[in-house]
Amino acid sequence: MRRYGKHTDEDDIRSRPNRKGTRPRTHTRPKHEEASWGMVLTVDRGRLTCLVEGRTVMAMKARELGRKAAVVGDRVALVGDLSGKKDTLARIVRIEERTSVLRRTADDDDPYERVVVANADQLAIVTALADPEPRPRLIDRCLVAAYDGGLEPLLVMTKSDLASPDKLWELYGDLDIPFVVTSREELESGAALGRVVEQLAGKVTAFIGHSGVGKTTLVNALVPEDRRRLTGHVNAVTGRGRHTTTSALALPLGDSDGWVIDTPGLRSFGLAHIDPSRVILAFPDLEPGTVNCPRGCSHDEPDCALDQWVADGHADPARLYSLRRLLSTRERRDGD
């Protein structure tokens, strides 16, 4: 039913008065000069737990930040109730520029980039020597992401009581990557903690690894007063672990002036967000061999100098295979 006639005038249209008055919209954002700085410890369904002047504060992102999201490790400016009391909520109004960022995609065909951790100094890549078996190509992918994001890698090999680290170390021993080897007994007794803490002291370290490698068990041993959920077990049929960490969490490393960030166990680690030309940076044993490569070399063609580099004994053939596997995966995606 027509409410107004054919020739209505503006005055004929009834409008609901605005009780708050007529305030023109503006793109000028408030400066919030009184905001306090804090660090994001964890994120859960839009709520962010932050550390502000020694207090744990629950907060949410301000609307003026748009689609920009804060992640664990971010340094943020907060306003509102910063008391940290129950049922209080602060507001994040600014996110400081990041010094490093660990990013991944679900797989190499996924265009959606996920920021896992911000402002970490190093990435501890945790791998079991057995139960489940090591996955060197996943380690290589984590190395690519670390170098691309500005993090220094640290290799942590667990469960040395089940297998020797020698075979795995043959692939990475010449890369000048710091490493730590631990066993179950050493973690239970605390004998290995000193060696691990020595690599973490004074740094923000993100721990990453596929499920079942003992990553969360190691974090629990390092930060016993902030233990995570009960650790899972490895599936006897699939050889894969059960996820025990569902969200990234930053924990203070006791008196060592460092931070440990536990992340969810990985099933895959996509590199869709990384330029293929930067993948070689994760293979410092191969990179010098590219000097004699033809211009624009894809490192997977007949004239590639890396074949001779490996043939001369400068690097393990398995490393070149891993590099080319990563690059070919990226090329298949780019051609889709």
Concise synopsis of the structure shown:
This protein is α/β, with parallel strands linked by helices and 336 residues long. It has helices spanning 136-149, 166-172, 184-189, 193-200, 215-222, 306-311, 317-334; strands spanning 36-44, 47-52, 55-61, 75-80, 90-95, 101-104, 114-118, 122-128, 152-158, 179-181, 204-208, 249-252, 259-262.
SSE topology:
Layout: E1 36-44, E2 47-52, E3 55-61, E4 75-80, E5 90-95, E6 101-104, E7 114-118, E8 122-128, H1 136-149, E9 152-158, H2 166-172, E10 179-181, H3 184-189, H4 193-200, E11 204-208, H5 215-222, E12 249-252, E13 259-262, H6 306-311, H7 317-334
Parallel strand pairs: 3-5, 8-9, 8-11, 9-10, 11-13
Antiparallel strand pairs: 1-2, 1-4, 2-3, 4-5, 6-7, 12-13
Offer a few descriptive terms.
7 helices, five-stranded mixed β-barrel, alpha/beta, 336 residues, 22% strand, globular
Structure write-up:
There is one protein chain. This protein has 336 residues and is α/β, with parallel strands linked by helices. 20% of the residues lie in helices and 22% in strands. The protein has 7 helices and 13 strands. The chain has a 6-stranded mixed sheet. Strands 1-2-3-5-4 form a 5-stranded mixed β-barrel. The longest helix has 18 residues. It is globular, with a radius of gyration of 25 Å.
